[in-house]
Amino acid sequence: MEDTLFKEKIAQFQKLYDESSRIVFFGGAGVSTESGIPDFRSQDGLYNQKWRYPPEVIISRSFFNSNPEEFFRFYREKLIVKNVQPNTAHNVLAKMESLGKLSAVVTQNIDGLHQAAGSKNVFELHGSVLRNYCMKCGAPYNIDFIEQSKSEADGVPHCTKCGGKIKPDVVLYEESLNQECINGAVKAISGADLLIIGGTSLVVYPAAGLIDYYRGKNIVLINKSETASDYKAHLVIHESIGKVLGALKI
C-alpha cells in the first residue's frame, strides 16, 4: 500500500516537473544527511549531543568573540566534515540545472556539496565552511588552513599576513544573513513556476520565511517528517529527498 502511494506521488511530481521550466529548489540539512553529515535537530543531531556548552550557544557570534578557543574546538569536531561526497539529491539537482530546468538552489547548508555536484547558481543562506577570512585585513583562507591551525597554542587560526583572527564565512546566531544572497534567493523563488522544498523542517528563520515569496501555485514539499508548512504544498511526500529525486525521470 505504501509503495503504491509512493508511486502515485512520484507520478504527480513527474507531471509537475515535466510541465515546469523555472524550478527552484529550497533545501536544508536533510539533503546532506545522506552524505553522512549530521543535521541539527533530529534525535542524533548536533543539538542533542552533550558538549561543554549548548551547541546553540557555541555557534553564536558573542561566544565566538568571547571564547574562540572553545568555538574552534567545536567547529572542527562537529561542523567540518571531510571526505564527504554529493549524494543522489545533489547530483539530480545539478543535472536538472544543466538541462535548463532548474534555475537556482537555495540552501541552508554550509557544506558546499551542491557546488561539488556541479550546481552553479547556488544561494548559500548560511555561508560555507569552505570559505574563511581574516577579520582584520580580509585575506581568504581555505578549510585546510582552519584544520591545520588546531596545532597552534590556543587553536585559534590567525592571519599569516597581519595576525588578525580568522572567521569562518558562516552565519552564526546573532548575525544577519547576507543581503545580496537574500536578494538573489528572493528573486529566484518569486520567479519560479515550481518550488521544490526538501530536507528541511522549515523552523529556522529568517531563511524559512523565504518560501513565502513564491508566487506560483505548485509547491512540492519533501521531508521525512511533517512540517508546519505542509499545508502550503500542492504535493507532500514524507520520504528521504534522495529517494524521491532519484525516482524522477529527468
From TrEMBL:
Keyword Membrane in record: no
Residue stretches making up the Deacetylase sirtuin-type domain: 3-250
Cellular component aspect of the GO annotation: cytoplasm
Main location: cytoplasm
Subcellular localization, as worded in the UniProt entry: Cytoplasm
EC annotation from Swiss-Prot or TrEMBL: 2.3.1.286
GO MF entry, a single one: zinc ion binding
Cofactor: Zn(2+)
Superkingdom, natural source: Bacteria
Keyword annotations of the record: Cytoplasm, Metal-binding, NAD, Transferase, Zinc
Catalytic reaction list: N(6)-acetyl-L-lysyl-[protein] + NAD(+) + H2O = 2''-O-acetyl-ADP-D-ribose + nicotinamide + L-lysyl-[protein]
InterPro entries: DHS-like_NAD/FAD-binding_dom, NAD-dep_sirtuin_deacylases, Sirtuin, Sirtuin_cat_small_dom_sf, Sirtuin_class_U, Ssirtuin_cat_dom
Gene3D superfamilies, A to Z: SIR2/SIRT2 'Small Domain, TPP-binding domain
Cofactor: how and how many bound: Binds 1 zinc ion per subunit.
Catalytic residues in the record: 126 (proton acceptor)
Positions bound to NAD(+): 29, 33, 40-41, 108, 110-111, 126, 200-201, 223, 241
Positions contributing to nicotinamide binding: 40, 110-111
Ligand binding (Zn(2+)): 134, 137, 159, 162
Alphabetical list of SUPFAM superfamilies matching this protein: DHS-like NAD/FAD-binding domain
Biological role: NAD-dependent protein deacetylase which modulates the activities of several enzymes which are inactive in their acetylated form.
Family: Belongs to the sirtuin family. Class U subfamily.
Protein name per the record: NAD-dependent protein deacetylase
